[in-house]
Amino acid sequence: MAITQASVLPQQYVSQLGQDYGQQLAGLTAIPLDTSQFAPTVAAQDPLQTQAASLAASGVGGYQPYLGQAATQGTQAISTLGGVSPYISAAGALTGTGAGTGAGSIASYMSPYQQAVIDATLGEYDIQAQKGLGTIGTAAVGAGAYGGGRHGIAEAEYQSQSDRQRALLQAQMLQQGYGVGQQARQQDLMNQLTLGGAQAGLAQGQLGMGTYQQGLAQLAPQLAGGDIGMLSQIGGIQQQQAQNVLEAARAGRQMGAMEPYQRMGVYGQGLQALAPIQGQMQTQQTADPTALQTALGWTSVLGGIMNPGLGQPRTLPT
Predict the structure, then answer these.
(1) Which of 145, 255, 280, 309 has the most neighbouring CB atoms within 10 Å?
(2) What is the distance of C-alpha 184 from the center of its chain?
(3) What is the longest distance spanned by two Cα atoms in the chain?
């Protein structure tokens, strides 16, 4: 009895496309993909960031010189204030009556030549006074009254008037010397107080300089911090831009490397779409198998059971 076999074969162009796809896929996947060309990379620090880090490192302890100078100014101020006391003490010694002859008295400020001037002035006055007495005597001789009562009275009045004037002149010179000494003593007092005030003012100025140095010590880190922050911010923006450039380049290399695989994927999707397209039905009749053929057929069936790879259906050529 004849056996009839039927099979459906795909269209020839589908088979050719499948064969071509298999060859290209095998060739493409046989080459290892170099992933290092699109591995992630990190942009280096921007020069501004490096500068900020260097500035931050060099600025550590930058306030120390100012604090040292402030401490020095404070020490100098203390020393300067210690110098005020002698002037205050000296001024205190000049606030009394100024009596006596010791240091700080008015007498100590009077000219050492004053008495000599007084003596010389009074000596000259006495000489001139004696001349006046001679004039009275000469006049009495001319009047014939020399040695008389009126002559004696005239000389006595003259001598009395002369003595009063001499005493007044001496008092005026002493008073003038005293006034000069008093003014000199008062000026010395003011000078001592002024020097003490100047010394105290100098100490205050040194303390002010110390405070100013302390302010600089506080300001220096703030200014440095502002510079560091600005440099870091701008440097970070530039570094981010560099990172974006690296990422764009990496993405471009990755797209280029994956393009063949994407193309093969589109190729495979097209083949899947063509798979449902059927070919023509083909039939074939064969003669009844002989006993030997039957035995061989059973052997083939048993072999397929034992080894599934040997029992696959085969399609006869058209």
Answers:
(1) 145
(2) 55
(3) 220
